[in-house]
User: What shape does this take?
Amino acid sequence: MSKETKDKPEEMASFFDLRAAGYEDHMQETINSFTQYYATVAVPIPHTTEPISVLDLGCGTGLELRWIFAQAPNAKLTCVDVSENMLKVLQRTYRERCDQIRLIQDSYVRWPFGQDQYDYVVSVMTMHHFVSEDKVALYKKIRQALKPGGQYIEGDYVVSPEKERELLETYWQLCGDDQADEGLYHVDVPCSLEVQKQLFETAGFQHFYVLFEEGEHFIYVVK
Ligand SMILES: C[S@@+](CC[C@H](N)C(=O)[O-])C[C@H]1O[C@@H](n2cnc3c(N)ncnc32)[C@H](O)[C@@H]1O
Assistant: This one.
C-alpha cells in the first residue's frame, strides 16, 4: 500500500462551512428515501416525555433532531460538530428548543464524552471519515459515555469489501501517515458491513442489528 502524500484534501471544518447553506438540499438529492432514512434513525428511541439524554456526534444542521424530538419531545441533546456554519443552521432551525440543545463546536475526537452520561448516542453520515483504528477508539469512548442499557445508533455508508479496499488506498495516498488518525480531512473511507460489525465487537459492544438498508445507506444499532 502506497503511503506517499499527494495534494491535501479539504479540511473537514472548512469543507462543511462552505457547504452548510446547500447541505440539506444535497442530502435530499443523495438519499432516495431521505425522509424515511432520517425518521428511522429515531426508531430505537421509544415515545417518551422523559428528559432523556442524547449525544449527537457530527450533528451538522440537525436533520436527525426533528425525529428524535418527535419520539422524545423533552429530550436533552448534546450536539457536537466542528463546522461553525453547520451549527448556525441547526441553531436557527431549532431556536424554539434552544434550552434543550447544548451545542459544542469541537472535534468529537478531542471532546471528552464522559462516563455513563447518555441514554442514546447517535451519529449520522459522519463516521465514514475515519479509518478502522480511529473508529474503534471512538466506539470505545461512546460505549463508556452510554448509561447502562443505552444504545448507539449509527447511520452511514456501507460498501463492498472491494470498494472499501480501493477507498482506503486513496485515503492513504491523500492523507499520508501523519494525518490518518484525526479525521481532519474530508476523505471518505466507509467500511463493509462485516468490518463494521468487527469494529463494534472490538470496541466491546455485544449486540448489533441493521435497522435500515437502501443501496449503500445503512442504519445500525449497537448496545
Ligand atoms: C455529512 S454531515 C452529517 C450531518 C448530520 N448528522 C446529517 O446526517 O445530516 C457530517 C458532519 O460531521 C461533522 N464532522 C466530521 N468530522 C467531525 C469531527 N471529527 N468532529 C465533529 N464533527 C465532525 C461535519 O462538520 C459535518 O457537519
